[in-house]
DNA sequence: ACATAATATGCCTTGACACGTATATGCTCG
DNA sequence: CGAGCATATACGTGTCAAGGCATATTATGT
């Protein structure tokens, strides 16, 4: 469990983060809202805390957990290198991301904006030389 | 391997995606640049393809892989709910919202972040004995 | 000090997944 | 057709993390 990406790979942890995005919560509140066991919540919170996603303060017998932005920023920064693929010009793709099935975008004269060269069967690639 | 977050949790897969962000690559090219075994590359590419991160076209005996933006957009959208925590121009709004629930939220030079906030949470479930 | 609430931790089992090696499939050319 | 390259898949293995359960720890009020 080293990278921030592994931390947010777990659905329950993402749920906890989303919950804390609205307001800080105690362990028991998280436990109830997400229907998780108490040790489960504590364990996930530990992972989140050690990765810097959350911090806690003591309130009587309970601990109030709240978000810390830095690790999420890290994800955001990694994502930055890909933004040019959709931020500039994504016509229909931007709207629906649940449609992952694309029909066929091989029509000439239209769609090649970020596609570099998509060829099927042609010989513009230099033929590999058999090496021994 | 269902969610996009699990897919990008793997460091080699993130490396492949970063590589494809510059330009499309064949399996062999990825293999050499990332010092991975060929089956390793193919297997990761399969995961990426089935999750919609990449698509491939055939070029003679090789396959050219290129990026597809949708799953990365999905990550971006999930991240959106946290952006207010670090975007500066929304800081005032954040504080306003926090005041409804958060006693303190760390911002440089500002509020006491480790102060023991004496309890004042609203109880949604029967609590044993309020200490008064 | 005792009982109890809230949270944390330890142990164990189970399942998923990444990796390596070997092998299969597919394509191209002589 | 047969050789050789490029990629995909199958199989066996080790590792690691998530979940459940029991228990430890810390705080609170009587």
Question: Can you offer a commentary on this structure?
Answer:
2 copies of one chain form a homodimer. By secondary structure, chain A is of the alpha+beta class. In chain A, about 35% of the residues lie in helices and about 10% in strands. Chain A is built from 5 helices and 3 strands, in the order ααβααββα. Chain A has a 3-stranded antiparallel β-sheet. The radius of gyration of chain A is 23 Å and the shape is elongated. The two termini of chain A are about 45 Å apart. The C terminus of chain A is likely disordered. Chains A and B meet through helix 2, strand 2, strand 3 and helix 5 of A and helix 2, strand 2, strand 3, helix 5 and helix 6 of B. The first copy, chain A, binds a DNA duplex (30 and 30 nucleotides) through helix 4.
Topology:
The structure is a homodimer of 132-residue chains.
Chain A: H1 4-7, H2 11-22, E1 25-26, H3 27-34, H4 38-50, E2 54-59, E3 62-67, H5 70-80
Helix pairs in contact in A: 3-4
The structure holds a DNA duplex (30 and 30 nucleotides).
The largest inter-chain interface, given as chain pair and residues per side, is: A-B, 53 and 56 residues
Given helix and strand content, the structural type of chain A is: alpha+beta
Q: How many extended strands of chain A? A: 3
Strand proportion of chain A: 5-15%
**Strand arrangement, largest sheet of chain A?**
1-3-2
Report helical residue fraction of chain A.
Answer: 25-40%
The residue ranges of chain A in which pLDDT falls below 50 over 5 or more consecutive positions are 97-132
Sheet with the most strands, sense and barrel status of chain A: 3 strands, antiparallel
Shape of chain A: elongated
Radius of gyration from the alpha-carbon trace of chain A, in angstroms: 23 Å
- Mean of pLDDT of chain A: 78
Q: Figure out the total of helices of chain A.
A: 5
Distance between the termini of chain A: 44 Å
Query: What is the succession of H and E elements of chain A?
Result: HHEHHEEH
What's the assembly state of these chains?
homodimer
């Amino acid at each position: 469990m080293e990278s921030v990406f592994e931390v947010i790979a777990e659905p329950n942890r993402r749920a906890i983060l989303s919950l804390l995005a609205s307001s800080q919560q105690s362990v028991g509140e998280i436990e109830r809202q997400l229907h998780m066991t108490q040790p489960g919540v504590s364990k996930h919170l530990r992972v989140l805390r050690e990765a810097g996603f959350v911090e806690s303060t003591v309130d009587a017998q309970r601990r109030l957990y709240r978000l810390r932005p830095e690790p999420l920023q890290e994800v955001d920064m990694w994502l930055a290198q890909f933004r040019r693929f959709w931020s500039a010009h994504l016509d229909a793709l931007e709207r629906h991301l649940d449609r992952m099935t694309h029909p066929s975008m091989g029509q000439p004269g239209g769609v090649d904006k970020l596609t570099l060269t998509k060829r099927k069967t042609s010989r513009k690639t230099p033929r590999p030389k058999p090496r021994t």
